[in-house]
Write a structure and sequence with these properties.
There is one protein chain. By secondary structure, the chain is an all-alpha fold. The chain folds into two domains: 52 residues; 92 residues, no CATH class. Helices cover 51% and strands 0% of the residues. It contains eight helices and no strands.
Length: 162
């Protein structure tokens, strides 16, 4: 008998990963509290990650199309994956981004900098001055929205500093 959503032609794979004791204990505690098996919690985490990062599934999604994703996950991706600027440049521009969607290296560097350095860099960019805000991510988002013609992608009210 197969589980829901699992067809006979699909095969599940066993995946191994290393976790530190703190993370493993946290998973066990959450699973116990939710009355589910640890494996269900791991599958939930993987499915949640895949859904939230769906733009990376689509190879036609390149350049500025990926900026909303990298703004949303900027700190987490930098902390956990340790991107270098050339690596992120390749991920975003995919070596052949359409000229209208090409993201400049200077903007990719903004995605890799810590909060206080992003603020300093944005203060040096004349085009970013019109969007100055206390929240660095909102300021960065506003700058990218204007520069790359993106739809607004963070669901917050933006208050521009004067």
């Amino acid at each position: 008998m197969s589980s829901p959503g699992f067809t006979e032609g699909e095969k599940k794979q066993i995946v191994s990963m290393r976790l530190n004791n703190h993370d493993r204990n946290a998973i066990q505690t959450m699973a116990t509290r939710l009355f589910v098996r640890e494996a269900e919690l791991y599958r939930f985490a993987v499915n949640n990650l895949l859904n939230r990062m769906h733009q990376l599934h689509n190879l036609d999604c390149t350049g500025s199309d990926l900026l909303p994703l990298f703004i949303e996950f900027r700190e987490e991706l930098n902390l956990n994956l340790g991107f270098k600027k050339q690596q992120l440049f390749k991920v975003i521009n995919n070596g052949n981004a359409h000229p209208d969607k090409f993201v400049a290296m200077s903007d990719i560097e903004l995605l890799l900098l810590p909060q206080h350095l992003v603020r300093q860099r944005l203060l040096q960019i004349e085009a970013a001055q019109a969007f100055k805000q206390q929240d660095i991510n909102a300021w960065l988002e506003s700058y990218f929205v204007e520069k790359y013609g993106l739809p607004k992608f963070i669901d917050e009210d933006i208050e521009i500093e004067v």
